[in-house]
Each structure stands twice: as C-alpha cells, then as structure tokens.
Design brief:
The complex is a heterodimer of chains A (147) and B (595).
Chain A lengths: L2 H19 L2 H64 L1 H11 L13 E2 L30 E2 L1
Antiparallel strand pairs in A: 1-2
Chain B lengths: L3 H33 L1 H12 E7 L5 E2 L5 E13 L1 H4 L2 H15 L3 H9 L2 E5 L5 E5 L3 E8 H14 L4 E10 L7 H4 L2 E4 L2 E4 L2 H5 L1 H4 L3 E7 L12 E4 L6 E4 L3 H18 L3 E8 L4 E8 L12 H4 L2 H4 L9 H10 L8 E3 L4 E4 L2 E4 L6 E3 H7 L2 H11 L1 H10 L28 H4 L10 H12 L3 E2 L5 E5 L6 E3 L6 E2 L6 H11 L18 E11 L2 E15 L6 E8 L7 H19 L6 H7 L1
Parallel strand pairs in B: 2-12
Antiparallel strand pairs in B: 1-10, 2-3, 3-6, 3-7, 4-5, 8-9, 10-11, 12-20, 13-14, 13-25, 15-18, 16-17, 19-22, 20-21, 23-24, 24-25
Chain lengths: 147, 595
C-alpha cells in the first residue's frame, strides 16, 4: 500500500479547485498586499541601513575631529611651555644684550598714579592742594597724588 | 528475500539513524561550544573585537606665586616599529632615510633595526629559539613638531608598522632658575621617579594616574557607538603654586652669579623672604644645575645646601643675643662696656676683636661688631636666658619649609655647654644654623618679634575638580615680651649700614637698611681655619616697615673674607632692584638728610 500516493492526491486536487475558484481581482489584491508588505519591509530595512551608514559616517567624522582637537590641545600645551621659556629672564637678558637695548634702572618717581577727584571733594584720607589737581614731583607732599 | 518496500524501509531507517547520530553529534558539539567552552571562546571572540587604549595623565606642574610656569610638561612622542610588517629592504631604506633626516640619528642604526626581522630568545629550558621581532624603539621623547611632520610623511607614503606613543616629558622652561629647590624627576620603564626638591616632596600629590579604555571596535579601530565601553579616567596630578616670585628670583640669581664670578666662592646662597607672612620670595644657591641637560649635571650641585647644610653664622648671630638682652631688660642701648682694646681672656682662652676698641655702648658694639662686647652682654644674661633666646628665635628647630632633608642646625642643650659656650655662641661660634634658620630669625626681628613658619608653597590646585588646598599663614609665636625692644634693635641694626658701621657699602639712598655682617671662620678637622671663611650679610628693608628680609652668603670667597665687602655689595644690588620691582619708594626725608 502506497500511503503517500493516496494521501497527496486529494489535497492537490482540493488546492487546485480552491485556486480555480478565486477571481482575478482577489488574486491581484493578494499579490498587491504581499508586494506592499514586502516593499515596506524592504524600505524599512534600507532606511535602517542608510541610517546606520550615516551614524557610522558621523561617528568616523567625530573621531577625526576629536583627534584633531586632541592634537591641537597638545600643540597648545607645547606652545604654552615655549612661551614660558621665552619669558624667562635669562632669555630676555640675552635678547636685550643682542639687540643692544640701552635700558636703565627705573627712577623711583618715574611712575606716578593719579587719582582725579572730578567732584573736587577729597576722598577719605586725601587732601586737595590749592583746590586744584596737584601734580608734584615731591610725591609725599601731594595730597591727591597716590604713590 | 527482501521486497522493494522492505528495502525502502531499511534505507529510511538507516538514513533516520544516520540523521539521529548526526544530530546527536551536532548537539554534543553545540553543547561543548556553547556551554562547555563558553568562557574560553567568548574571551577569544571578545579579544578580537575589543581594543584597549591606555593614556597617561599629566603630572602636576609647578608655578610661582603669579602663575608663571616653573616646571611643566611638554607633549612628545616615543617612536617604535614592528620590523615584521614595515616591509622589504627598499621600504626599510626609505623609512630609515626619513628617520635619520628628521631625528638626526644614524641611518645604519635605524636601517639595522628595521631589517632585524627575527631575534634569538632563550627559553626556560635554556634552548635558543628564533622568534619574530615585533618591536624596536627608534627614538624617545621626539618633540611634537617633528613627530607631526613624520606622521604626515608616513601617511602620504603609506608606510606600515610605525607607531607613535603619545606622552609628556618633564620640562624646566626657566632652566637653572630655582633648580635646587624645584628638584627633578627621572624616568624608569615609563614610571616617573622624583629625585629631589619640591618634585620629590609633593610627588604623591603631583603624580598622575593612567586612563584605561576598553571598547568594541570597528574594523578601522575606532570605537563602535553601540558597543560596550569600560573606562577608567586618567587623573592629572595636582599643580603646586610656590610663594616664589619669578622676577625676584631672577634678580637674586643674576646678582648671585655676579658675586660668584667676582669672589669665586666654593658655594654661595641667597634667600629673600617676606617677614610679614614668612613667604620665601626667592632662594638660590651656587653651584646649581640645569635639569633639562642631564649630561652636564654634577651630582655635587644637586644638594639643596640652603636647608640641608648648616654653618657657623658668625656675627650675624649678634643681633639675636642683643635683642634677647634688651628684651629681658638686662641692657639698654646706651649702656657701656669695656671692649678691652681687642683682647680679652675668659675661661683660659683669649677672645679677640677684628679691630681694637675701648669703651663702647651696646649700640656701638653691634655697629662695630665687637666680639668682646657681645660676650660680656651674654655673660650678664646668663646661660639659661641666652639658650632660651636662641630657642625662641627658632634655632635648633625646623623652619617648616617643605623640603627634605632639612637640618635643625646644631644648638647644644644647655647641660652640654662648657665655660666658653656663653661667650662664643652669641658671636656665632660653636652653633650651627642653616641659612633658612637665619632668615627666619631675622624675619622675627623685622616683624616685631613674631616668629613665623617659613612658607614655600602657597597652594595646591586640582585643575580637574577646581579644588584648591591652601597653605594657611599660621599664627606666629611672640618672641619679645617688651614692645619697645623691637624699635631699639632696629635702630641699632640700622647703624651697621651707616657711617662707622661694618657695612657702609650696603647703604641705599632713601632707604633705611637694618642688618648685620658676618665673617665666620670655618671649623675644619677640629680647628678653626685661618684661610677658609663664610662671608655673609643679612638684613631687611625699609628698616621700620620691613618688606623684605635678605640673606647673602659666600662660602670660602677668594680675594676678601669680610661679609661687608663680599656679600654686602651683592645684598645692596639685590635689595635695590627688588625695591624698584616692588615699587617701594625711597623716603624723601632720608634723601634730604643725606643731601
């Protein structure tokens, strides 16, 4: 007894009968639905892939920028140390000698800080000489010339 | 006999049995792989897509009180190669030419390293085997400028197997400036070892930690966004801010160099401090060294003599003894003493003065630096009081400065004093003090008898968290009981730099300078030398409102031995420039008086 032959035949016949019973419209509708579903899956998958690609591209770009920032930071650090080296008095002294700058010691009275009282009223602890702004070489005598 | 159906049945069974066995085998294999060897295989797989990146943090830097960098870190690179993947002889020649051109190293040496593809290794069993050579160092601490150039060339030429390891090298931008105080570090197998100075004292605070980052990587090595990440952040070392002022330090060192050039001493020291806070503004010694140039560094010059060594201070000790006697009310500035015409026998030994003097007041004793006069004042004080005065002024104790080793000097306890001690200690013989101790004692004299701890470090700063740890100015100890003592001592000390004093060369027009010269014999092999001296001058200015205390000392000067002649002019030059820098104006009344 061939069980397989006996079991398959009725089912094939039945399927064929079912298919033959469907109208073209229904068939098209089913095909269309399947196509829409497949294309939706396709689109979602593609969108996801392109999104991933973008993420990956941006990520690579950000890594490049991070590296650039890191390199620039290192360069800044090197320049800061170089600036400090150039600010050292031993270096400045050498340059002064090299350029032949005729520098001299400052006179203690060379720099004077003036406090101007616009309202002509003396501030606390200050006095005004002759009611006018006093500019004296004798700094200790000048009331509103602060040293 | 088998029918065709039987035959099919047998075949089906055989196939089914085969499949059952095959599936069993497959399941067994699956079990082994998924469960049995899970940990091992998972680790292997993870290693393939996981990368580990380590980066060292920055060691803390050292700044002066105004934020000028004294010790910093310079970014640089270590360059290494993998000879196995650099390529053939032609490529190796190109790479070697590039390295020798930019790194100024011998072509043959580099080429040899590049072409050494294998190396012999001794196994544990003692066998010699040949292995692939995967690592060779080309250059260490290559400056950033050069390494950037090299990176560009390597990228353009698409050279493989060349690696750059980013790091920092310790750099001292001011070279010799303050080198003995700052100290230096060495590197041993990538570990930083602090050798001396501030670098060593604050090594724990200034040390950095390494960052470790484990991440799932893409093919090109960059981290995956969605991948797992583990990271330990690097901690930078803390920055140390000193009380030192770089401009004042530069002035001090420049003038000290001039003194060394003129008098050629074996060693020289200078310290400048602010008496009102105890801040060390500048301190220098000669010989010193340039920490950037390790080849020229002489280990003898490393030692910080300023705090590790002590010397007999000589006459610079006299104001301390006189101040004590005045404070106890034992003497007054006008009290007269017979100075025995320069020779006086006490305790079986003769005490001499540099110049014979007759009867002098206490003020004149200090002005003319009479040993006999001071010895007689000390005898009136008695041993106990004299010892107490020395201790009160901080002799025999640490100054509080964060440098090691620091000496406490040599001040014998009172029970070990002999008959002569009372006449020798107040003139600075038989007692040992470090230059720092002398500066601290003079800070107390300058600041109304307030004895402070000296400060070298102002604050420590964590740049990552913004945390600032300040070193507070501690409350001083009051040395004088009598508030009038200070004025009396200052007036006496001012006379030293005036006409008739031992340090007329120190005087600066428009400023009152209080100070004392010191000319001490060195104690060598159990006897005082008659050829080796320490010439020193310590003082402060302006005398009645002191802003700076300054010590200048020359150890074994040649040409002269006197503190007033050797150290005095240097003191004057430093003081004058420092006063100009600090914008401390001269007193017009004093200028008029002089005119």
């Amino acid at each position: 007894m061939n069980i397989q032959t006996r079991n398959i035949r009725p089912s094939r016949r039945k399927n064929r009968r079912d298919a033959e019973g469907l109208s073209i419209g229904t068939k098209l509708f089913v095909v269309l639905n399947v196509a829409i579903a497949l294309s939706a899956v396709f689109l979602i998958a593609n969108y996801r892939i392109s999104l991933n690609q973008n993420i990956s591209g941006i990520e690579a770009q950000s890594v490049r920028y991070q590296q650039k920032i890191h390199d620039l930071n290192r360069e800044v650090e090197a320049l800061q140390v170089r600036r400090e080296k150039l600010c050292a008095w031993s270096h400045i002294r050498g340059r002064i000698a090299q350029l032949g700058l005729d520098l001299r010691m400052p006179d203690p009275f060379q720099v004077q800080r003036l406090v101007v009282n616009f309202d002509d009223r003396p501030a606390a602890g200050e006095t005004i000489l002759d009611g006018k702004l006093a500019m004296s070489q004798d700094w200790s005598a000048a009331g509103n010339v602060n040293q | 006999m088998l029918t065709s159906n039987d035959s099919i049945r047998v075949r089906i069974r055989l196939v089914a049995i085969f499949f059952v066995f095959a599936f069993c085998a497959l399941f067994y294999r699956l079990y082994i792989v998924q469960i049995g060897r899970h940990a091992e295989l998972y680790r292997k797989a993870k290693n393939q897509y996981t990368a580990k990146k380590t980066e060292a943090g920055k060691r803390g830097e050292i700044f002066d009180c105004n934020g000028n960098l004294l010790v910093g870190n310079v970014p640089c690179d270590d360059i290494s190669i993998d000879p196995w993947i650099v390529g053939d002889a032609t490529t190796c020649r190109k790479i070697a030419a590039m390295f020798s051109k930019y790194l100024k190293i011998d072509f043959d040496v580099v080429y040899g390293k590049l072409m050494r593809k294998t190396r012999k290794v001794k196994t544990k069993e003692g066998k010699r085997i040949v292995r692939r050579n995967r690592y060779a160092v080309i250059a260490r601490e290559v400056p950033l400028k050069i390494s950037s150039k090299l990176k560009r060339i390597i990228k353009v030429n698409e050279f493989l197997g060349i690696f750059f390891r980013e790091k920092y090298s310790r750099y001292y931008p001011k070279k010799n400036l303050l080198s003995n105080v700052l100290g230096f570090t060495n590197e041993d197998h990538g570990e930083i070892i602090a050798v001396l100075g501030v670098e060593k004292f604050f090594n724990k605070q200034m040390s950095s930690s390494k960052s470790v980052m484990r991440f799932e990587r893409a093919r090109d090595g960059r981290p995956l966004i969605y991948g797992a990440k583990e990271s330990i952040k690097a901690r930078n070392g803390l920055n140390v801010y000193l009380t030192i002022s770089e401009p004042l330090q530069s002035i001090l060192e420049e003038e000290l160099d001039k003194m060394v050039a003129e008098w050629k001493p074996t060693a020289a020291y200078a310290i400048m401090a602010d008496p009102k806070t105890g801040n060390i503004l500048a301190m220098a010694q000669r010989p010193s060294f340039n920490p950037n140039d390790r080849r020229s560094m002489d280990p003898k010059a490393w030692r910080n003599r300023i705090c590790a060594d002590y010397f007999e201070p000589g006459s610079t000790m006299k104001p301390v003894a006189v101040a004590g006697a005045l404070d106890y009310g034992i003497v007054t500035p006008g009290m007269k003493f017979n100075c025995e015409k320069g020779r006086w026998k006490y305790g079986g030994k003769i005490l001499k003065d540099a110049h014979p003097m007759d009867v002098l007041t206490v003020s004149q004793i200090l002005q003319k630096s009479s040993n006999i006069g001071i010895a007689k004042i000390a005898l009136m004080m008695g041993e106990k009081r004299l010892y107490r005065v020395f201790r009160k002024f901080g002799f025999g104790s640490y100054t509080g400065i964060p440098l090691k080793p620091e000496t406490r000097g040599a001040l014998r306890p009172i029970n070990r004093w002999d008959t002569l001690s009372i006449t020798r200690f107040p003139i600075g013989q038989g007692v040992g003090t470090s230059p720092l101790q002398m500066v601290r004692a003079y800070c107390a004299l300058a600041d109304h008898g307030r004895l402070r701890k000296l400060r070298l470090v102002d604050k420590i700063e964590d740049t990552q968290t913004g945390l600032v740890i300040r070193n507070p100015i501690k409350k001083p100890l009051q040395v004088f009981h009598d508030p009038t003592t200070w004025g009396k001592v200052i007036d006496m000390m001012c006379m030293v730099t005036e006409a008739g004093g031992t340090a007329r060369r120190v005087a600066i027009e428009g400023y009152e300078i209080a100070g004392k010269t010191g000319t001490s014999q060195k104690f060598i092999n159990g006897a005082y030398s008659h050829s080796k001296y320490i010439a020193s001058f310590i003082g402060f200015m302006p005398a009645h409102d002191p802003q700076i205390v300054l010590l200048v000392a020359a150890d074994e000067p040649h040409g002269s031995i006197y503190g007033g002649r050797v150290a005095g002019p240097t003191f004057r030059n430093i003081a004058l420039r420092a006063l100009r820098y600090l914008n401390i104006k001269p007193d017009p009344e004093l200028m008029k008086k002089r005119k």
